[in-house]
Design brief:
It holds the Pfam family Arabinose_bd. Keywords: DNA-binding, Transcription, Transcription regulation. This is Helix-turn-helix domain-containing protein. The protein is built from 17 helices and nine strands. It is of the alpha/beta class. The strands form three sheets. The protein has a five-stranded mixed β-sheet. Strands 1-9 form a two-stranded parallel sheet. A two-stranded antiparallel ribbon has the order 2-3. Strand 4 and strand 5 form a beta hairpin. The longest helix has 20 residues.
Length: about 325
């Protein structure tokens, strides 16, 4: 894959009219001043009404400004709700015309760099549940919680728009239960768990098969074809590295750089621009896998080690302890 197809946080490829304008409208409705919101972002009022592209870095500065000015604790949820309608003439037609909501969920990665470039969702299937583990796709750092909460709210709204129903999503948060819990309940419902290992969306597989109200194969294919003709970036840099690490357990930075058509120094520099390193991404992927296999699926050491390409159980135990701070047995007991 040529590296020109990998979206980074400095690429000006995000639609200001949809993303930035949606956030500004939500904040201004709660008393924020538009000029103060845009200050220091490099985004101007006229950009909110045009097709001018902005970078993820610019948008994250806008989020920081909005969080300081917004009077309330529901900014992320309100933004997520507004975001779906912002793409009414863009990506939304595809989702509207799918056969059922499972198709929508499968399509989210295809549209990710346009509608939710700041995070991605790695899918695990276990028993009758689908787990979508949310990951930082842009080096969001302090803004990741905001982006993840907005994604969850948008997913709820998208499901209702497509199916006419409030689908039974459950949400896991990797932090303590907040004092303003009513904002979470209003934005996401009551299936909430806090102090969990990951930011995760869970739903029963059968519920995902809820049919969409305006299913139309021809319209869906037309919307997809039009979008793919215009798509500039297929995936973010961080997601591409994570994706390859899942299937190349012993990959090195030089080998990864070669696969991406980059020099090792360039890949290292680009990752640093996203406030991460190759080693941190590798450990993040392996930690996620270890916790899911041991804590969620309750697999034994041999089964988990096999899935994670370990041939030596002792090395597997040591690695799990380093990644998670717990032994495999301790994880299974949670």
């Amino acid at each position: 894959m040529p590296h020109t197809q990998l979206l980074t946080r400095t690429d000006k490829a995000l639609p200001a009219r949809q993303l930035a304008n949606a956030l500004v409208q939500v904040a201004v409705a709660r008393g924020a001043d538009e000029q103060k919101l845009l200050r220091g972002t490099g985004i101007f009022s006229e950009d909110l009404l045009t097709s001018r592209a902005i970078s993820a870095e610019q948008f994250m500065k806008l989020v920081g400004n909005a969080q300081k000015q917004y009077s309330g604790d529901d900014l992320a949820f309100q933004f997520g709700h507004y975001l779906v309608s912002a793409f009414v003439n863009d990506a939304l037609p595809y989702f509207t015309h799918t056969a059922h909501f499972a198709e929508c969920v499968r399509a989210i990665p295809v549209f990710q760099t346009r509608i939710c470039p700041f995070l991605s969702a790695h899918r695990y299937d276990y028993n009758d549940e689908v787990f979508l583990v949310l990951q930082d796709a842009m080096g969001c750092a302090k803004q990741f919680v905001f982006m993840a909460e907005a994604f969850c709210a948008a997913l709820m709204v998208l499901a209702r728009h497509c199916t006419g129903k409030r689908l039974p999503f459950s949400f896991d948060f990797p932090y303590r239960r907040p004092r303003h819990i009513q904002e979470y309940e209003e934005g996401l419902g009551f299936r909430l768990r806090f102090e969990q290992p990951f930011f995760t969306v869970r739903i029963n597989r059968q519920a995902l098969l809820t049919p969409c109200l305006q299913a139309n194969q021809a319209f869906k294919q037309f919307a997809l074809r039009r979008y793919l003709e215009q798509r500039q970036f297929r995936r973010t840099l961080l997601d591409t590295v994570r994706f390859r690490l899942r299937y190349q357990a012993v990959a090195t930075l030089p080998a990864m750089a070669k696969q991406l058509g980059l020099s090792p120094a360039t890949l290292k520099r680009k990752l640093a621009e996203h406030d991460t390193t190759f080693s941190l991404l590798h450990d993040d992927v392996r930690r996620q896998q270890a916790i899911f296999y041991l804590q969620v699926q309750k697999l034994n050491n041999e089964q988990s080690a096999l899935k994670m390409a370990f041939s030596d159980i002792t090395n597997f135990r040591r690695a799990v302890k380093r990644w998670t701070g717990s032994t495999p047995s301790q994880l299974r007991e949670v």
